[in-house]
C-alpha cells in the first residue's frame, strides 16, 4: 500500500471553512490524501483543508485502512512529507510504515520505486473532469467523487472498454 497527498484548487463557491492554503505548493484549496494498493486502486480517501499537515492526513488514512482492510495490509510506503508520527501510528495498528527517501543526487521530479503507483492513480483521477478542481461544498462529497471516479476506472479495466476521455474531440456526423 502507498500513501500520498496532493493539493487541489477549489471553486469559487466552496466555503472557506472547508478549504485552506498549502504553503509548500502555494495552492489555495483542499488536500486529497489517498491510500492506494499495488494495482493502483484506491483503498481510502481523506479530503481536509490544504493547510492540514501530512501527518494528520496519514494517521486518518491508516485508521481507515485498518478499519476497511483489516489484517490484510502489513506494509505502507509514504513520502518524505510524512514524519515519524505516522510511522508510530502505523506500528500501533500493526502496519509497517516505511518512509521512502529521495536520493540527494536526484534533482527535479523523479519517480520513486513502488511509490509511482499513487502518482499514476492521481494522473488517472485527474482525467475525470470533476476532479481537476474541487467543486464540492462538503469534504465528504469530494471524497465520494474520488470513489466514483475509481469505480469508473475499475469498470473500464474489468470490461476492457477503452472509453474516450473528455479531452478527445468527438467526431460529428451529419
SSE layout and pairing:
Blueprint: E1 2-9, E2 20-22, E3 27-36, E4 42-46, H1 54-69, E5 75-78, H2 84-93, E6 96-99, H3 116-125, H4 139-159
Parallel strand pairs: 5-6
Antiparallel strand pairs: 1-3, 2-3, 3-4
Helix pairs in contact: 1-2
The count of β-strands is 6
The CATH superfamily title: Ribonuclease H-like superfamily/Ribonuclease H
Distance between the termini: 49 Å
Element order: H for helix, E for strand: EEEEHEHEHH
**Helix-residue proportion:** 25-40%
> What fold name goes in the CATH topology slot?
Nucleotidyltransferase, domain 5
Secondary structure class reads alpha+beta
| CATH architectural grouping | 2-Layer Sandwich
Question: Radius of gyration in whole Å, from Cα?
Answer: 17 Å
Strand residues, percent: 15-25%
The domain count comes to 1
Number of helices: 4
Description:
By secondary structure, the protein is α+β, with helices and mostly antiparallel strands. 33% of the residues lie in helices and 20% in strands. The protein is built from 4 helices and 6 strands, in the order ββββαβαβαα. The strands form 2 sheets. Strands 1, 2, 3 and 4 form a 4-stranded antiparallel sheet that branches. The radius of gyration is 17 Å and the shape is globular.
Amino acid at each position: 500500500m502507498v500513501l500520498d497527498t496532493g493539493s487541489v484548487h477549489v471553486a469559487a463557491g466552496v466555503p472557506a471553512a472547508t478549504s485552506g492554503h498549502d504553503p509548500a505548493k502555494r495552492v489555495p484549496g483542499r488536500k486529497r490524501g489517498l491510500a492506494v494498493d499495488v494495482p493502483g486502486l484506491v483503498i481510502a480517501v481523506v479530503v481536509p483543508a490544504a493547510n492540514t499537515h501530512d501527518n494528520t492526513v496519514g494517521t486518518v488514512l491508516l485508521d481507515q485502512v485498518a478499519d476497511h482492510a483489516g489484517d490484510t495490509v502489513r506494509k505502507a510506503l509514504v513520502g518524505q512529507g510524512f514524519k515519524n508520527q505516522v510511522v508510530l501510528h502505523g506500528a500501533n495498528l500493526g502496519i509497517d510504515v516505511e518512509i521512502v527517501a529521495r536520493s540527494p543526487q536526484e534533482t527535479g521530479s523523479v519517480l520513486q520505486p513502488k511509490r509511482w503507483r499513487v502518482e499514476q492513480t492521481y494522473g488517472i483521477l485527474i482525467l475525470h473532469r470533476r476532479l481537476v478542481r474541487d467543486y464540492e461544498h462538503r469534504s465528504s462529497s469530494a471524497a465520494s467523487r474520488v470513489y466514483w471516479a475509481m469505480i469508473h476506472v475499475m469498470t473500464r479495466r474489468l470490461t476492457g472498454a477503452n472509453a474516450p476521455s473528455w479531452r478527445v474531440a468527438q467526431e460529428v456526423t451529419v
